[in-house]
Amino acid sequence: MYELQAVALIERDTNNDILWVWSYPTVEDPIRELVMGRCTLDKDDDNVEYCFCHYQQTWYYLSNFKCDNNPNLPKVTMSCLVLLTKDFNPEKYQHFSALLWHSYSNSGSPTDILTPYLSVYTKGSCPDPTGDETFAVKSFDVRVAYIACPLRDVVQMFGIESIYIYTALLLKKRVAVYAPVVQDVLKVTRSLPLFVWHRQNWNVVFPHVELNEMELADLTSHGTYVAGFTDATIEARTELYDLFVNGMMTRHCVCIWWSVSIVPANAISVAPHAKGMCKYCC
Q1: For the packed helices 151-158 and 162-170, what is the interaxial angle rounded to 10 degrees?
Q2: Contact yes or no for 134/127 (Cβ under 8 A)
Q3: Strands, E, within the chain: which ranges?
Q4: How far apart are CA 95 and CA 98, in angstroms?
């Protein structure tokens, strides 16, 4: 048995209704609520083609596909294929999602997803209908996923202030990353554990967290984490982090500070309870 836990389909029909139409096995209501909250099928102008999140030791990978002019799906305008897994490997599951979608779109029957899904679940491989090769789990080394977003990009973005991120991760502190664009926050959060490569622990990453009671309860149950947010109000929620990172890709300025009151961009402020950590940054 491999790392798969469930597969599901969410669809937007011609009436613009968004429905959870199928899953295998059954997904509990709280998880459905979380996944539906990440689904962007209702946002034509801000549709995210692929994203992922982490909740209660499960990784969620969401891939959106357009269904325009598909004779097998005449009442569907867009679909979101969701994979629930135990492991972090965005590239592997993006590829697998495309494979499952190809099987589904060629027939319009969700049950046609089951053949490749169960094959990978039990054997770790399945024929790839999009080409002549075989999809194999072993072909996707998790270490390649770890370095998919190079650390040098983060260092170039934050410059010398990267030492604060390194120190926070080394001391197993709580890091909050803000960016208004989902893809930006995913890129930054997944790259930060590279600062402590010797641990090779990406389970501390919560790449996209909403400020709701359910997700925050899970997040704060962990002593250390790298959590991503697209809600700017996270800046004022200092009880949720020890280090705040403004990861906006559209700006050259960077704002990083230890948990304390709001400070202007390009400034660093150390809270009284964190002053003992400053010696590690020198």
Answers
A1: 130
A2: yes
A3: 4-13, 18-24, 50-55, 58-66, 76-85, 125-127, 134-136, 174-178, 205-206, 225-229, 243-246, 256-258
A4: 5
Which residue type sits at 36?
Answer: M
**If you search the block for the tokens 């429905």, which residue do you land on?**
19
Distance (Å, whole) CA 39 – CA 51? 9
Amino acid 70 reads N
Q: Kindly list the distances between the CA atom of residue 48 and the CA atoms of 167, 229, 258, in Å, as whole numbers in the listed order.
A: 32, 15, 31
Read off the pTM. Answer: 0.89
The 3-state DSSP class for residue 83 equals strand
User: Encoding tokens for residue 24?
Assistant: 């295998």
Per-residue pLDDT reduced to its tens digit, 125-146: 999 877 778 999 999 999 999 9
